[in-house]
Design a protein that fits this description.
The complex is a heterodimer of chains A (176) and B (471). Chain A is built from eight helices and three strands. Chain A is mainly alpha-helical. Chain A has one domain. The two termini of chain A are 31 Å apart. By secondary structure, chain B is an alpha+beta fold. The chains are: A mainly alpha (176), B alpha+beta (471).
Chain lengths: 176, 471
């Protein structure tokens, strides 16, 4: 098993996808967004995301995950490895943003989609003639491309605060 | 095409006359763009197909031309589909999409930097954490973004008084990060692929990539969601294109000798890196690309050729010299074993494949001792993952075909068909499509090469490996 696939397997273990159960769209969505967000800790797995209907999405990650799902059936090389302590501690710093807000109605896929989308629109998406969009502009853009968030401004504000609290509004990643 | 795009005409063997606007002409005339003339599109494929020496330069022109034709086709159905401003920006994005390519195209991007080891360690060795590894070379698209947004000659032409095009916007279009302009550069039916299949086919002399470009282009439409779909009547042409990718992939991109040379080059680059004879980190490459100096202009195929030439005679590093000589005098390593399988994606790989891929790392030492061939002369490759998928027509399709919900984002990767009724479907879901069945197949390819052995030795080793795998 290639080292990049071993690392992906260790990361999937970390986010509760060790069995690589990706048979539903919701599960794949959670996996995609969690890897997106975890990379922001400075653990760069090399996955680059594009903007799709349901937020940032990386086709390469999707393909790697499907390949890995097959590989683990006959190759257990990954068992010899573990995330090192520095990586674990970096990933720990992001744990709190994953916790669903207890005051508003939401679910894990929606929450992660919101976090990843807000971050993507803030730091990665191209804004004609603008370099540092504010929350209000970002939310307008979000509603435009994802109408299912139209009535979710309160939730979006909580997500924004959560990103801000970890430093991901000011900086693109925790290492920048 | 408007008169503005006839400022200059370039004759191309694939597309005929390619018209250019004034700005496009100026961009092409920059030293940075001219560098693409010196980067072969197909890397080392010329070692097998002698005429495959075409460059990123003509491919870039071709991609721009196809982009233009698609945009015209979309406009012919809906005059408001693409504004004049977006028309020019999309042409420029197509023209510059490969501006950050490395010498010999993809080779230098695929070096094993061991970056993963920065984040993980072998169990029980967690105290030994290696965090001092250099940053890997950026991918060519990242390097292209740096060139477009920071390199003086390109940036100045885009921002010039008459043009006022923001370089970041062009970079965003190439990366699919633009929020308002349709993504025509990285989809299943993308302009890049449509050009390289036909161009590679023409220049290798192989017939497989000669797709029905005209019919495909004329039958594209844009949906309300800025999604490119193909009209049902062009279904056969699209299927042919996807099959063409499959045959071109097997015949050219994965040809045993082409692949062997490229693998040797990767080893040479790794050795040069280790000895600090080439750019030692991603930061240095990025710095060189953004600087207004000639270093980036000299970073072309000849850059690697000169190094290979020089180190072929280096008596201080015999291992490196052996590899460089083999490339210089076209002595490819011998393919001593290969497993190639095409099975349903829910079938397990063969027993031989499983043993070979899971046990080779421990077995190679034993073979190396027995045949007295040092380990570094053995090249083992289990070809899969992103680099394989990138060119392969069926991997992503096969996996995505498992999906049931037709609106899933994954399916945007696939070819979408507009039926006569107006309904949008996925080509793969059509049971009358050959791709519906082909998409269930998963290819696996595993190869072992050895540098510097003769046919007799290769035969002996092949028999030994076969015996091991059958035991």
């Amino acid at each position: 098993m290639d080292k990049d696939h071993i690392l992906l397997k260790l990361m999937l273990d970390r986010i509760g996808f060790g069995n690589i159960e990706i048979d539903t769209f919701e599960k794949r969505k959670i996996l995609q967004k969690k890897i997106y967000l975890l990379q922001l800790s400075g653990t760069d797995l090399g996955y680059r995301y594009n903007w799709y209907l349901q937020g940032p999405y990386c086709p390469t990650l999707a393909n790697d995950t499907y390949t890995l799902r097959e590989e683990v059936k006959y190759d257990s090389e990954f068992n010899k490895y573990e995330l090192n302590s520095k990586t674990k501690s970096k990933l720990d710093t992001l744990d709190k943003i994953f916790i669903l807000p207890d005051t508003l109605e939401t679910n894990e896929p929606e929450w992660l989609e919101l976090l990843a989308s807000l971050h993507y629109l803030k730091h990665i998406a191209y804004w004609p003639g603008k370099s540092n969009p504010e929350f209000e502009e970002i939310f307008e853009k979000l509603k435009e491309s994802k109408p299912h968030f139209t009535d979710k401004i309160d939730l979006a504000k909580v997500a924004w605060e959560r990103l801000d609290g970890t430093g991901l509004v000011r900086n693109k990643t925790l290492e920048s | 095409m408007g008169k503005g795009f006839r400022h200059k005409i370039i004759i191309d063997p694939v597309h005929g006359d390619i018209g250019l606007s004034k700005l496009e002409t100026e961009l092409i005339d920059t030293p940075t763009f001219q560098r693409l003339r010196r980067i072969k599109q197909l890397g080392f494929a010329y070692t097998v197909y002698p005429n495959a020496r075409h460059s990123r330069f003509e491919h870039s022109l071709g991609v721009m031309h196809i982009m233009s034709r698609i945009l015209e086709s979309l406009r012919s159905k809906d005059n408001d589909a693409i504004s004049d401003e977006h028309f020019q920006k999309l042409r420029i994005a197509a023209l510059l999409h490969d501006i950050g390519h490395y010498p010999y195209s993809h080779l230098m991007e695929k070096i094993d930097w061991g970056s993963e080891q920065k984040y993980m360690s072998k169990k029980g060795q967690s105290g030994v954490e290696d965090v001092s590894r250099p940053k890997p070379y950026p991918k060519h698209d990242k390097l292209g973004e740096i060139v477009i947004t920071e390199r003086k000659d390109i940036k100045e032409k885009l921002e010039g008084n008459e043009n006022k095009i923001e370089p970041k916007e062009i970079a965003a279009l190439i990366k699919g990060e633009h929020q308002n302009i349709p993504n025509l550069l990285s989809a299943s039916l993308d302009v890049d692929r449509l050009d390289y299949l036909v161009r590679d086919s023409l220049n290798t002399g192989l017939p497989y990539g000669r797709v029905d470009l005209d019919y495909i282009v004329n039958n594209l439409e844009l949906t309300d969601r800025n999604e490119v779909v193909v009209c049902a009547k062009a279904r056969n042409s699209v299927e042919h294109m996807l099959m063409a990718r499959y045959f071109m992939f097997n015949t050219v991109y994965m040809h045993k000798t082409v692949f062997a040379f490229e693998e040797m080059i990767r080893r040479i680059i790794s050795a040069l890196l280790k000895n600090e004879k080439i750019y030692t980190s991603g930061e240095k490459i990025e710095e060189m690309a953004r600087a207004d100096s000639d270093d980036f202009l000299a970073f072309d195929d000849a850059y690697l050729d000169k190094l290979i030439d020089h180190y072929a005679d280096d008596r201080r590093n015999k291992k490196l010299a052996t590899l460089c000589k083999a490339v210089k005098f076209r002595k490819p390593p011998k393919l001593v074993y290969e497993i190639s399988e095409l099975k349903r994606d829910d079938d397990n790989p063969s027993r031989k494949y499983t043993i070979l891929t899971s046990s080779w790392d421990s077995k190679v030492r034993e073979f190396a001792n027995e045949f007295e061939i040092s380990e570094e002369r053995w090249i083992f490759r289990d070809i899969k993952g992103p680099e394989f998928e990138k060119l392969h027509p069926f991997v992503s399709l096969a996996e995505a075909s498992e999906l049931k919900e037709s609106k899933e984002q994954e399916l945007r990767e696939l070819v979408r068909v507009k039926e006569k009724s107006g309904e949008i479907t996925n080509l793969l879901e059509d049971k009358s499509s050959i791709l519906h069945y082909m998409s269930r197949l998963k290819p696996r390819l595993c190869r072992i090469y050895i540098v510097g052995i003769d046919d007799t030795k290769a035969g002996q080793i092949r028999a030994k490996i076969e015996k091991w795998l059958q035991s």
